[in-house]
Design brief:
It contains 7 helices and 8 strands. It is α+β, with helices and mostly antiparallel strands. The strands form 2 sheets. Strands 1-2-3-4-5 form a 5-stranded antiparallel beta sheet, covered by helices on one side. It has a 3-stranded antiparallel beta sheet with strand order 6-7-8, with helices on one face. The longest helix is centred in the N-terminal third of the chain and has 32 residues. The radius of gyration is 24 Å and the shape is elongated.
Length: 288
Amino acid sequence: MNRDEAIQATKNGAVAGCISGALTLAIFWIAIFTNASGAIGLWNDPSVAFDIVLIFACAYGIYKKSRFAAVLLFVYFIFAKIVIGIETGKVSGIGTAVVFLYFYGKAIQGAFVFHKIEKSENPGYKATPKWIYYTGVTALIIGAALMVVGLMTVTGVLPSTEVQIGTEISQSDRDLLISNDIIAKGDHIEYFYSTGLISILEGGSILTEDRVILYLPEDNKKIEVYEVSVNDISSIELVERGNAMNNSLYKINSRKPDAWLQIELSAENKGDVKFIEALRAKVTRINP
């Protein structure tokens, strides 16, 4: 690859990045405005805006012959495809993905070749400062680590960051809840959210067909389980609205004196709203 071919490769990679970013933006807007669920519901999440910004930033970086941006976009694209495949349960668009990866791969080659040629032929070439190089390498390592954590969350190795519907809970997690006497074997879980980072036993909230459950470990590491029957719920209060960084807090008041629960729910993909709406519907049916 000569200098002109290297420049063209980075331009092509930048164009591919812009196309990918535009497609993601279009799907994002459709999902948000239609409040989509199902497969396209993956894009019905404000955090996708960060992905879009990242894609366009990398595309611009590739246009500027950035080696870091080229490598980052290549790795991110693969990670995103894996996550989408796991979330939807199917692998689609392989042909399109291969095309994008081809242009991203050529952009990586082009960026490195361009800088190599410039370094040897251009007397005025300024090498990338070491602090930028080390910062870029560190950012890639951190990014890769976050991607690994993300994959572990999606695959169920780590607790999900979202409120899950009953059918999304793995059998191993359900067995863990049963073996620790958090739920009974015959309970039907409608919604579930764990506040745990490593294990679901670190705490969580559950909505079954007839009650709300809050469980959390005490100082002696024994798991304490608190619950309120749907029949006894008098009101549901929003204590604190969650966002991309913080969970929502809701207070579940009981008709029994001094009996109440404060549960914590992830606001990701409006899971907190879905959990509470399902609970309100139950309460309304009982007390129209």
